[in-house]
Task: inverse folding
């Protein structure tokens, strides 16, 4: 028995388009029509969480540069996916370039001057906190405009939920840096703040790192409440609407049975 293989458009046999070709095609499509493509945003949000969980952005500007680069990519992806106006996207890009430029200068200065005024201030920056908060705001604003719930709406909701945890982690770090106090009883790394934020928004409540000041207790509690409100309202509504729309679709027409 002969072994027949599927052939491509040119007639040559093969398994189909390679992963690189598919990646280039998806990238080109995202560049041409980025609206509501929250998958790219979700990738960068998860990448930000992963990088900030491994690197301590509070002790080195070089580590902070990598973490903030992931956050910057997430913001740019959010600006494109939410169909932000061209002036708005240009303003976002300008802010990102300025912020990254400052971080590059500080990272270079830290490399060549181990002592002196170039030591990192725990990686806290009001600008990065504002940029982190802007991502879920943009996404939720876009999702409110959706008249039909689909898979992209679900991806956008998940991305916004995880980005809220990123924003709270940046807020925790900033509060400790600006007040000069150990709000959790001992100095923490930026990866610790990410860990606390994720366990707080999911109400996991492990308790190995607990807030020690009234302000931090309020912030941690507010994140837990915000996370639960987000899940029981926005995510629940999106998922239920998505399932309802799938059930209400008419079944695909079947081809007539062939006559003997």
Result:
């Amino acid at each position: 028995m002969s072994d027949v293989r599927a052939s491509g458009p040119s007639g040559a046999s093969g398994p189909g388009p390679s992963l690189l070709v598919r990646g280039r095609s998806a990238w080109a499509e995202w560049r041409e029509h980025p609206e509501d493509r929250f998958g790219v945003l979700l990738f960068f949000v998860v990448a930000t969480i992963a990088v900030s969980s491994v690197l301590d952005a509070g002790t080195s500007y070089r580590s902070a540069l990598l973490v903030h680069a992931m956050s910057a990519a997430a913001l740019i992806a959010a600006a494109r996916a939410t169909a932000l106006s061209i002036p708005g996207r240009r303003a976002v890009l300008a802010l990102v370039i300025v912020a990254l430029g400052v971080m590059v200068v500080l990272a270079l200065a830290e490399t060549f001057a181990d002592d002196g005024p170039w030591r990192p201030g725990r990686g806290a920056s009001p600008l990065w906190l504002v940029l982190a908060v802007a991502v879920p705001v943009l996404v939720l604003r876009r999702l409110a405009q959706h008249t039909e719930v689909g898979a992209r709406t679900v991806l956008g909701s998940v991305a916004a939920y995880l980005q809220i945890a990123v924003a709270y982690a940046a807020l925790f770090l900033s509060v400790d840096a600006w007040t000069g106090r150990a709000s959790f009883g001992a100095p923490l790394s930026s990866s610790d703040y990410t860990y606390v934020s994720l366990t707080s928004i999911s109400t996991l409540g492990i308790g190995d790192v607990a807030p020690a000041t009234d302000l931090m207790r309020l912030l941690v509690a507010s994140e837990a409440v915000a996370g639960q409100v987000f899940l029981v309202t926005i995510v629940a509504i999106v998922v239920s609407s998505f399932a309802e729309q799938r059930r209400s679709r008419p079944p695909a027409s079947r081809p007539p049975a062939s006559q003997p």
About this structure: The radius of gyration is 23 Å. Residues 214-248 form the longest helix (35 residues). Helices lie at 19-32, 38-54, 61-81, 86-112, 126-143, 151-179, 190-201, 214-248. Residues 1-14 have pLDDT under 50 and may be disordered.
